[in-house]
Each structure stands twice: as structure tokens, then as C-alpha cells.
Model the fold of this input.
Amino acid sequence: FVLALPQTGHAQSKDRVGVVERLQGDVSIVHFGNSAKATEGMAISLKDQLVTGADARLQIILADDTQITLGENAKAVIKEYHFSPFSSGNRGVVLVEVSKGAFLFTTGRISQLADKRIEVKTALANLMAKGTEFWGGPTGKDSEGVAVFEGSVAGPLETDLGPALYRVNGVLAAEETSFEAAHETLAAIEA
Done:
């Protein structure tokens, strides 16, 4: 005798990467183009778009206990996620793209793996994290900042002259400035 039950929720078990832990206000999950109002305990799948409205917050927890919290008017997608602590590869990958708004990212057990890649892409930079808790988001009109509370964040930053490398162990406020606009300041430093 075999009993087959339909799977509840929108995520299939193979692409499920986490769950909604907490939320406040208007939060939706867009899964394959279909938008649904988020609820606590709702499954999050790979490539789901996480969207918060005005005065809204969303906290999700991934399978390895990594926590991602989004502030108001934010948009994020988990582009890639793999956590296999017991396989021969002992490897993990988490790649999150935050296209809008502020976020708090706290790594879970994935940070303890020997072979790992933890990356958060924002409009301004790609952040590579090591055993970390960090915040990123808008700090003004055309600027974005990163504050690292534990661990370190490093990565390339695209500039008009090509990529620049940075490492953050505290607070970094970044503002996009053209080379022409910065020329006077740079000339004064050389003098």
C-alpha cells in the first residue's frame, strides 16, 4: 500500500533553501513570476524574489542557519545556494543579489566549511564574506555603505578606471564619483 500526498507550499524540496523566520508589514515572495503574500514558515526557493514594502521587514533563515534580514522597500534574490557539510567535498556556496534596499547578513554553518563562497551582490559592489555579520544599504542619495560587525568583507568594486579591491573590517561608506570630479582632490594628494 502506497500513499501519495501532494506537497504543500510553493517550493519543491530540491530547490528549497530556507524559510521565512519573521516578517513585518507588506512582504511578498515572487516565485516563477507569481507573487504571494509572505507568511512565517513559508518556504523560500532558489531564485525566489523577496520584496518588502514601506515600513516592512523580512528575516529568512537558510538551511545552514545563515540569516538574511531585509529592510523596507528592499528586493533580493538567492541566486545560488549549496550546503553539503557531510559530503566528500565539504563545500558551500551562497550568492545573494540585493538590488534595492538595506540588508543584514549573518553567516551560519556555511562559514565553517573548508571550501566556501559567500557573496552578496549589490548595485555598487560584490561583497565576499568570511565568517561574518554585516549590513549593507543606502546611506544617502547616491551612496551605499557597508558596516561589518564580525569577520571581514572584501571584494572588487567597479570604477571608471577598472576594478578596485577593498577589504572591510569596520564601516565603509561608498559614493560613486567620476574621475573627473575627483581630479582636484587627487591632484592635492599628490602635491
Q: What stands out?
A: Confidence is low (pLDDT under 50) at residues 1-12, 167-174. The CA atoms of residues 28 and 37 lie 4 Å apart. Residues 179-190 form the longest helix (12 residues). The helical segments are 179-190.
